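Researcher: Please predict.
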Amino acid sequence: MLEVNDVRIARAPLDFHFEFSLPNQGVLLIRGPSGEGKSTLLDALGGYIPIDSGTVTWQSQAIGQLPPEKRPITSLFQSHNLFDHLTVGANLATALPHISEVDRKNALTALGVDAHYHKYPTALSGGQRQRVGLIAALLRPEPLVLLDEPFRELDPDTRLRVILWTLEQIQSLGKTLLLVSHNPDDDLFIKRQVTDVREYVVRLKEDHSGNGLPQSG
C-alpha cells in the first residue's frame, strides 16, 4: 500500500497538503484546477522535489527521503522522458533492458507506433512521442507508476485505445498507478473498464489558500 500521511510542501506562494492511501494495484485518478498541486504531488512522490513534513511509505517502508533512483517508482513527465539523440527502438532498449526486442516491438504495435521504430523522437508528433514514453514507463519493473497527463495529446479514438492498453498492463503486471488528468471522460472510461483493480478518483480542492488536500469521491 502507498500511504501519504500529512505531507506538506511549500511552493511559494502556495502551501500544499496531501493525505491519502492507495492499495496495491489501485488506480488513482487525480484531478483539480491548475495550480492546485497535481504535478507537485507526483514530483514529490517521485523524489524530484522535497517534502517539508509528513511521511510517504510503500509497503510500510518509508520512501519519502530516498533519492528518485532508490524509490520503487517510475515517473512519466509531460516531456515524455525520451532521449532525442536515440531512435525509438534505442530509447526503449535503454529504458527496458529486461524486456526482449520482440516484446518492445509488440508494445509499439499495440499502440500504433511500430512504424516509427527507427525514427528519432524529434521526427514524431506529440501523440506519438507520448505513446512511446508511456511504453517505456509502464513496462519498467518498478511497482508504482506516476503518469502526468499521459493522454493529453491523443485524438479521442487513439486515447481510448491507449487507456485500454494502459489498464491491461497495470492489471497484468500488478502495478499501482497514479494518474493526473484534466479530462473528465478519463474518469468515466476508467471506471467502466477497471474490474479486479480498485480505483479511486481524487480531486484537489479549489482553495485560494493553496491547500491541495485530496478529496476522494
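Model: The first helix runs from residue 38 to 46.
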